[in-house]
Write a structure and sequence with these properties.
CATH class of chain B: Alpha Beta
CATH superfamily of chain B: P-loop containing nucleotide triphosphate hydrolases
Largest sheet of chain A: 4 strands, mixed
Shape of chain B: globular
Mean pLDDT of chain B: 89
Distance between the termini of chain B: 30 Å
Strand order of the largest sheet of chain B: 6-7-8-3-9-10
CATH architecture of chain B: 3-Layer(aba) Sandwich
CATH topology of chain B: Rossmann fold
Largest interface: A-B, 39 and 58 residues
Helix content of chain A: 55-70%
Number of helices of chain A: 16
Shape of chain A: elongated
Radius of gyration of chain A: 33 Å
Helix content of chain B: 25-40%
Order of helices and strands of chain A: HHEHEHEHEHHHHHHHHHHH
Radius of gyration of chain B: 19 Å
Mean pLDDT of chain A: 81
Structural class of chain A: mainly alpha
Largest sheet of chain B: 6 strands, mixed
Order of helices and strands of chain B: EEEHEEHEHHHEHEHEEHHH
Structural class of chain B: alpha/beta
Oligomer: heterodimer
Low-confidence stretches of chain A: 1-16
Low-confidence stretches of chain B: none
Strand content of chain B: 25-35%
Number of domains of chain B: 1
């Protein structure tokens, strides 16, 4: 039993899609998403805290490690067994400002266990052998696999070698032979690294952490505004209002980008502050992270930090729930994290196209900024063009997806 | 006024026999099959039918969320498929999904939708205040909606749908999950809308709900309209004494009554 519908008299006025876009609504969506995201205090706090603390933590750790090694090398105590047979050696070591620990008991097991970093054992016939011109033996007992002992053993070993060489030269001179004869070939090393470059090698990780901030800062927010919207069942009511999917897409992107830029800025500020607090020159590290480096980093990271939310949003919308989206994102993020590691361990020179690979290109240019090298125009072009291209494609995909009927039907 | 003429919608459902099956078979499910009816201004029209009859799909097509496969639907003369912006401006929709933003307050939730409907900020705020007063939400207005009860959430969702003072109001199962007091106040609200001359279309699977409110009833079963008329016409046509018996006879089962 059906009734016939009354004939309609109204004429159709199809409105072109592009004309529907409203800047005002875009900003309303942005403002709402931004407020909503900032209300999620716990997630925001932990995301920002993690990226802000990683820089200072790293610099602090490096400083602590280096000073600790330097302190131990400076205040070195040298355990010597049978020191009475080599009084000259004892005097040389003491002149270097080191203390002597004569005849330590159980030295071998204590070196093995790490209680002693090394031990010197002077042969009992050392004095006689030295006087007779036979090779007189001193044994340096070390444990090579232990990283923290290596610099100390190295220091003592170099003192020993210098002392032995000195003695050898004196003997040659006494016999009327020039010591130069004993060194027919002179090997010299010329290191082309400028002081800045040597310092920046230690802080190479900084570029990695800055990129990491641009990635991690947006994840929670991107999931919340896409998969979270589906999970809370707020997408359907939203789509019954005049707001277009393009306005929604751009609004969400702008809000998440805002959060991401805060994360990147915080992370870099953390680096700058900690590098200024730590007396790097005390470490012989002529490394600076001044205004020029900060500006360079921001110039590279800003386009990157705008691209990442677009990609994350496009992926996030694929999940019906935040949890589902998170598990698919996790793989993508760890893959992206591996990219710069690849160039860190690569032995050959980077191929020409490396600059155009997202993440890798950024990593390379950030390192150049740290090394105070000039960055070519085509590299700057890549820093802008690649994120812009990827971002536009991702945002287009997201806007198509938000308007897709399956988003509602396949709930 | 809502005019619906031969509206059709089918979905493709992908199914796997088991978790490890490589191939998914697809199946075509017709959700709405040539549905036609008219809902007038100043009247409450009930869309009645058992679960899965096609009520939500019909309402989603009317609210421009789904595009009809065939047929036409017009809201005050505007076609839902080709004139989306106009339709969306004139519609207030309380859809199947009634989610709120948890971290925003009731007032912010309502005002946000007002802004999306093109109201200026002060205008949206004033309208939100007015609806908050009308619905008795004043004590909760500034609280985040996370801790709200089912009835309080429904009130915020309804206020959000009415914020731009729409002429046509679509309500998908508006009393679902509400207690008796909340159901009564929802009925009051719907009567108020009718008194204000609005066109109200609401869906329900509960006969009593529809009988208590509607001037006109459209009964849908398996995607098709099986009856369209006033409550007294239903009784006359079925020859039954109660609407409940008439409903059972029309849809040929008692399914909808206990769902």
């Amino acid at each position: 039993m059906t009734t016939v519908v009354e004939p309609t008299v109204a004429t159709i006025h199809p409105t072109p899609k592009a004309a529907d876009f409203s800047w005002a609504r875009w900003l309303v969506v942005t403002q709402k998403e931004f407020t909503d995201l900032l209300r999620d205090r716990k997630s925001i706090f932990w995301a920002l805290f993690a990226v802000a603390i990683s820089g200072p933590l790293m610099v602090g750790l490096m400083y602590w490690l280096t000073t600790a090694v330097m302190d131990r090398v400076d205040k070195l105590t040298v355990p010597i067994v049978n020191a009475q047979f080599a009084p000259d050696l004892v005097r040389t070591i003491e002149r270097q400002g080191m203390k002597i620990d004569a005849d330590p008991p159980d030295y071998e097991s204590r070196v093995k266990s790490g209680e002693l970093d090394f031990a010197l054992v002077v042969d009992t016939d050392f004095t006689e052998s030295l006087a007779a011109g036979r090779p007189a033996r001193i044994t340096l007992i070390t444990e090579r696999s232990r990283d923290r002992s290596a610099p100390l053993a190295g220091r003592v070993s170099s003192v020993l070698n210098a002392w032995a060489n000195q003695m050898g030269r004196e003997r040659l001179i006494l016999r009327g032979v020039s010591p130069v004869l004993a060194h027919p070939v002179q090997v010299e090393e010329l290191d082309l690294a400028t002081p800045e470059q040597r310092g920046s090698r230690l802080l190479q990780f900084m570029s990695f952490y800055a990129l990491f901030a641009g990635l991690m800062g947006a994840i929670a927010a991107a999931l919340d505004v896409t998969a979270g919207e589906r999970e809370r069942q707020t997408l359907e009511p939203l789509l019954t209002t005049p707001v277009t999917t393009l306005e929604l897409t751009l609004g969400k992107w702008l809000a998440v980008t805002g959060i991401n830029l805060i994360a990147v800025t915080t992370s870099l500020l953390g680096f700058v502050l900690s590098l200024h607090l730590v007396p790097l020159d005390r470490l012989g590290l002529p490394f600076t992270f001044g205004l020029a480096e900060y500006a360079g980093f921001m110039a590279v990271l800003t386009p990157f930090a705008c691209m990442v939310p677009a990609v994350l949003l496009a992926f996030g919308a694929a999940g019906k729930t935040a949890k589902e989206a998170q598990s698919s994102l996790q793989m993508g993020v760890s893959l992206i994290g591996l990219l710069p590691l690849m160039s860190m361990v690569r032995q050959t020179r980077a191929p020409w196209w490396d600059a155009w690979v997202p993440v890798n290109g950024q990593y390379a240019v950030l390192n150049k900024v740290l090394r105070a090298e000039t960055i070519a125009t085509h590299e700057w072009a890549a820093m802008l063009a690649i994120p812009a291209l990827i971002g536009v494609v991702a945002l287009y995909a997201l806007s198509r997806r938000l308007g897709d009927e399956r988003m509602l039907a396949g709930r | 006024m809502i005019e619906v003429c031969d509206l059709c919608k089918a979905f493709t459902v992908r199914e796997r026999r088991s978790t490890f099956a490589l191939r998914a078979s697809t199946r075509n499910v017709v959700a709405v099959d040539r549905v036609s009816f008219t809902a007038h201004d100043g009247e409450v029209t009930g869309l009645l039918g058992p679960n899965g009859a096609g009520k939500t799909t019909t309402l989603r097509m009317l609210s421009t969320l789904l595009t009809p496969d065939a047929g036409q639907a017009r809201i005050d003369g505007a076609d839902v498929a080709s004139e989306q912006p106009r339709v969306r401006r004139s519609l207030g929709v309380l859809g199947d999904a009634k989610g709120l933003y948890w971290r925003l307050s009731a007032r912010e939730n309502i005002a946000y939708f007002g802004r999306l409907h093109g109201l200026a900020a002060p205008q949206a705020a004033r309208r939100a205040d007015q609806l908050i007063d009308e619905l008795g939400l004043a004590a909760l207005a500034e609280r985040p909606t996370q801790g709200f009860s089912q009835g309080e959430r429904m009130k915020v969702a309804i206020a959000r749908a009415l914020v731009h003072n729409p002429q046509t109001v679509l309500l998908d199962e508006p009393t679902n999950g509400l207690d008796i007091m909340a159901t009564r106040s929802m009925r009051e609200l719907i009567r108020g809308l009718r008194a204000a001359g609005k066109c109200v279309l609401f869906s329900s699977h509960i006969m009593q709900e529809v009988a208590a409110l509607c001037d006109r009833i459209v009964i849908i079963d398996r995607g098709r309209v099986v009856f369209n008329g006033t409550p007294s016409e239903i009784l006359a046509a079925s020859g039954k004494r109660s609407l409940e018996d008439a409903f059972v006879q029309l849809i040929g089962s008692e399914e909808g009554l206990f769902a």
